[in-house]
Design goal:
Elements lengths: L1 H12 L1 H12 L2 H9 L5 H21 L15 H8 L9 H9 L1 H6 L4 H12 L2 E6 L37 H4 L28 E7 L2 E8 L2 E2 L5 E3 L39 H4 L8 H11 L3 H8 L9 H9 L4 H4 L2 H11 L5 H5 L5 E3 L13 E3 L16 E4 L4 E4 L9 E8 L20 E3 L4 E3 L7 E7 L4 E5 L7 E6 L6 E4 L3 E4 L6 E6 L2 E4 L5 E4 L1 E8 L2 E2 L4 E2 L5 E2 L4 E3 L2 E8 L2 E2 L2 E3 L4 E13 L8 E16 L2 E13 L3 E3 L6 E3 L12 E2 L32 H4 L16 H15 L5 E6 L2
Parallel strand pairs: 2-35, 7-8, 11-13, 12-14, 13-15, 14-16, 15-18, 16-19, 17-20, 18-21, 19-22, 20-25, 21-26, 25-28, 26-29, 27-29, 28-30, 29-30, 30-31, 31-32, 31-33, 33-34
Antiparallel strand pairs: 1-2, 3-10, 4-5, 5-9, 6-10, 8-9, 23-24
Helix pairs in contact: 2-4, 8-18, 11-15
């Protein structure tokens, strides 16, 4: 991050040009003229420009002498010197963010060494992940002694597991939390070395539960409709996706503020249905007064409400049962009254209040009526129909585990927009992460943020930029037959979904050496449709896009087809950058001369179809995972993970460094080695299905040569640049430095 800032400043300050012109003017004119008229002109000028660049470096260094004294502003080279002043042990130089924060907070860490607060902060400070630290001796089943805190009536709001006791098997809530950081069960001691599920619970065991996946918020998205006006999928392609919670921890700018135990809904975790349904209520005097004024309650009704003031109701059902037992139950049964009571009584420290509407929100756009409020929402499983009657005040059921929702208000004619968060390993494919490069230019054509069809006139093919402003669903999209320079992009932090209803044809017509750029788009299809490039292109760039690889079904049970990229013309250079792609192939007289792929995932879900089928292409592929066979003329690969055979025609040229191809592959000579012995890769990944949060993420059972086989010690594949193994080693180093003496740290990946 700092290095990129330095480069951008260098490009903006103009010192290179300033010193070049200044030095050039100092040279006598006769030498300048001779340099221009010589047989090899410009040699002297080139030497001057080289010296000017060094002069600019010295000038920038002088200008930053003051900033280099502060860890927040200094250049990377100054960090070790500041670290030496405070005497901290430096972590890997590749973990620049963690190293800088470590130096900045060294004294803060030392003053609080050995506390849970510091150990939890180390997770986010050093790695950028989130996590929770648990002292596992507290999870051992034993008799209570006088030093223990006084036991509460229930260990958890729903479980009923007593402190230090054994499992209450009548409650399902606690079973979902078993073996996790919020486990409410107690265990027998396990003295074995930690390995998977064994060796976790013991007196010296200190468990670090790590959440490596990020959660990304999608706003104003169009849900996929089942067609009945009641059932929807949050995912615009119709997949059942796991909804995630957004990170909701307070930033610790005040380092002396009181530390509190983290709750599940404050972490970027997959949302369980019971977590979303976790609602606790407590009425105070202000709530009773507000209800009395809004509904004109009688004195007898107010007196009954006063009897439950200050009482904590652990579930919404328990509150309803209490209200139904009152003499004025008819007044309390009014749906509007109950919604108001839920609104006033819902406490802040519960899952429902934390997740709605921050992480999940369902609204009716441009409606004169009320939006679907969190008080109207109930959590439940929607994969199978349920005969359980709903309370009359509930109009919306959300299934967070499968990414589905159901309206029960009967307003089938009204559309919906949704906000939700999904989980993924990194900034690859179409997503709502920061893509600030799209803000550098001013788009010439703004496609209205209304969803629906995209006309040919909205695609500026003469050098302008067409931009989609939101994350709604668009389609059909018109073909373009005379492309000279076309850029179609999504606005920053947006992820529009474009649904193809036929093959999308992009042709240059009479133009030659044309340019095409797609940026930030998710391309899906209603059937087996393709993106087909025809004509003559000098360069085609697909950046931060997802061309749906398919491989799953929507909520209606229909197969989701992949969206292949088919080249029917000539492409001099095809660039795929931070993208998720379906198959890439040529057809007819199609030709790709050069293929450049970096930080991407390419997948073919059909074993008979190659992931990359470009027999005449010279390819440079870096940090990429390829599911499916590969056919190329020549390859230069680095940190590439191929799960199926690669067939390279010219193995005398190119290289295959720090990369993996299975047995039977034909690739250039590998450096330093080639993992041909690994023929079964079914367990290498958390998931191979696009849409799953762990898609293309290396699993914990992947061979060490994959997990740490990159040149810099990171993993091989699409997420190599995340340097997760390096971050984990850095965390272990700092934990060993600040952990209490005699304890054994264990690290558990929750996501």
């Amino acid at each position: 991050m700092v290095q990129s800032q330095e480069i951008s400043h260098a490009a903006a300050d103009g010192f290179d040009t300033y010193f070049a012109e200044k030095l050039w003017e100092m040279i006598p004119a006769i030498y300048r003229i001779e340099d221009a008229n010589s047989d090899n002109p410009g040699v002297l000028r080139s030497m001057v420009e080289i010296m000017a660049k060094q002069a600019a470096v010295v000038r920038r260094s002088n200008d930053r002498l003051w900033e280099d004294q502060f860890i927040e502003w200094c250049n990377d080279w100054a960090v070790p010197y500041l670290a030496d002043l405070v005497g901290t042990r430096l972590i890997s130089a590749q973990n620049k963010r963690g190293r800088r924060i470590d130096v900045a907070k060294t004294i803060y860490y030392r003053r609080r060494k050995g506390t849970l607060r510091i150990l939890e902060e180390l997770i986010s400070d050093i790695t950028g992940w989130e996590g929770k630290v648990v002292e596992n001796f507290r999870r051992l089943g034993r008799s209570r002694h006088g030093l223990d805190p006084f036991p509460q009536p229930l260990a958890g709001p729903l479980s009923g597991t007593l402190p230090g006791g054994w499992a209450n098997l009548r409650q399902q809530h606690a079973s979902e939390l078993a073996d996790g950081p919020f486990d409410e069960y107690h265990h027998t001691p396990d003295m074995r070395r930690h390995r998977g599920k064994t060796g976790r619970y013991g007196i010296p065991k200190l468990a670090f539960h790590l959440y490596r996946l990020k959660s990304y918020l999608v706003e104003n998205s169009t849900p996929f409709s089942l067609g009945d006006g009641e059932n929807f999928s949050f995912d615009p392609s119709g997949r059942e996706v796991q909804l995630f919670a957004l990170r909701n921890r307070a930033e610790r700018f005040d380092w002396d503020e009181e530390w509190k135990v983290i709750q599940e809904w404050e972490l970027p975790v997959p949302i369980r249905c019971r977590l979303l349904g976790h609602a606790e209520y407590e009425l105070d005097g202000e709530a009773v007064l507000a209800l009395s004024n809004d509904f004109g309650l009688s004195a007898a009704t107010i007196a009954e409400l006063e009897t439950i003031r200050g009482i904590r109701f652990r579930t919404e059902a328990r509150l309803r049962q209490t209200l139904d037992s009152f003499q004025n139950a008819a007044t309390f049964a009014d749906p509007l009254f109950r919604l108001a009571l839920y609104s006033h009584g819902l406490i802040a420290d519960c899952g429902k209040n934390a997740l709605l509407p921050r992480s999940i929100d369902v609204r009716i756009p441009d409606s004169t009526g009320p939006s679907l409020l969190e008080e109207e929402t109930i959590s439940g499983h929607l994969q199978t129909p349920s005969a359980m009657p709903l309370p009359p005040e509930k109009n919306l059921i959300i299934d967070a585990e499968n990414g589905r929702l159901r309206r029960t208000d009967g307003a089938a004619g009204e559309g919906l927009v949704v906000n939700y968060a999904y989980g993924f390993s990194g900034d690859i494919g179409a997503g709502t992460y920061d893509r600030r490069h799209v803000e550098e230019g001013v788009p010439g054509t703004l496609i209205p943020a209304t969803g629906g069809a995209i006309a040919a006139a909205q695609l500026d093919h003469l050098g302008g930029t067409s931009q989609i402003q939101d994350s709604q669903t668009y389609g059909p999209i018109a073909n373009k037959n005379t492309i000279r320079d076309l850029t179609l992009q999504a606005a920053n932090h947006q992820r529009p979904y474009i649904r193809l209803t036929e093959d999308w044809r992009l042709r240059t017509g009479p133009n030659t050496n044309s340019f095409l750029t797609l940026d930030g788009l998710w391309m899906g299809a209603e059937g087996a449709f393709e993106i087909r490039l025809g004509g003559n292109y000098e360069c085609v760039v697909i950046r931060h896009c997802t061309l749906d690889p398919g491989g799953s079904e929507d909520i209606a049970g229909n197969a989701i087809s992949p969206v292949p990229l088919i080249i029917e013309g000539t492409v001099e250079r095809l660039i795929i950058d931070h993208s998720i792609m379906g198959p890439i192939a040529v057809r007819g007289d199609g030709l790709v001369e050069e293929l450049v792929v970096c930080d991407s995932i390419i997948q073919s879900v059909d074993g008979a179809v190659a992931a990359i089928d470009l027999d005449d292409a010279v390819a440079k592929i870096d940090r990429t995972t390829i599911f499916g066979t590969t056919h190329l003329h020549q390859i230069e690969a680095s940190e590439v993970l191929m799960t199926d055979a690669a067939h390279i025609t010219d193995t005398q040229s190119g290289c295959f460094r720090f990369s993996v191809a299975p047995e039977g592959s034909r690739v250039p000579r590998a450096y330093p080695h080639k993992l041909l012995s690994f023929t079964d890769s079914s367990h290498w990944f958390t998931s191979r299905v696009f849409g799953h949060p762990g898609y293309a993420q290396l699993s914990e059972t992947a061979p060490a040569a994959l997990a740490e086989g990159a040149e810099n010690g990171s993993e091989i594949g699409a997420f190599s640049s995340l340097i997760n193994p390096i971050k984990l080693k850095s965390l272990k180093t700092k934990v060993a430095e600040y952990m209490p003496f005699g304890l054994i740290p264990i690290f558990i990946n929750e996501t």
